[in-house]
Amino acid sequence: MIYVTETISLAEWELSESFMRASGPGGQNVNKVSTAVELRFEAERSPHLPPQVKARLKKLAGRRWTNEGAIVLQVDETRSQARNRDIARERLVELIRAALVAPKRRIATKPTLGSQRRRIAAKSARGEVKVLRGKVDDEE
38: part of which helix (H) or strand (E)? Predict the structure, then answer.
């Protein structure tokens, strides 16, 4: 079990991990040991997540969300397979916690009269500067 909050925890059957060889530094270790981790979380089928959270999670996951409704995270930051597993699970938990927070509704407001007047004054001042850049008439 992975505990996200006091009320939400993920079962092991919802997660699947596969290991592959990582790219980057590591010398001969890179060619021999499969340290990179691909963590797959079946978010769409998860009974532990409410529908609103699943919708927000889909937006937050972006390209990591598959057509089957799973989130795929790939980690190959360290040379240790165990550490990469921990990092992948931490990232999944952070992503789900971010999806749990409902965004605030935006309250539409009108600009103040003073700000409108300052904006118009700034526009007219800018217009005057541009007029002064024009051609000079020969009045001789």
Answer: strand 36-41
